[in-house]
Specification:
With 83 residues, the protein is an all-alpha fold. It has one domain. The chain has 5 helices and no strands. Helix 3 runs antiparallel to helix 5 (65-82) and helix 4 (53-61) crosses helix 5 (65-82). The longest helix has 18 residues, at 15-32. The model has no long low-confidence stretch (mean pLDDT 92).
Length: 83
């Protein structure tokens, strides 16, 4: 369904509609990318994510998982601001 929507917009819509569609999709993705680090932080706080990306990176690099979580937050927020 999503692929069909993108295909139809790219083939049938005017350039103004294509630009507006792309703008909405990009902001949807940018805003959607901010939530997962907060969810991961909440799960880690309650002990529900022992094999999370942050914990796996901590085991591989010996840098604390909190540092990786901070990096996830920083990248998502900087991407949102830069977007």
């Amino acid at each position: 369904l999503t692929g069909t929507t993108f295909l139809l917009v790219s083939w049938l819509a005017s350039s103004d509609v294509q630009s507006a569609f792309a703008y909405v999709v990009v902001w949807f993705l940018l805003l959607g990318g901010v939530r997962p680090p907060f969810e991961l932080q909440s799960k880690r706080r309650h002990g529900g994510a022992p094999d999370s990306d942050a914990d796996q990176l901590a085991r591989l690099t010996h840098a604390p998982a909190v540092l990786w979580l901070f990096l996830f937050h920083a990248v998502s927020l900087c991407s949102l601001i830069g977007g």
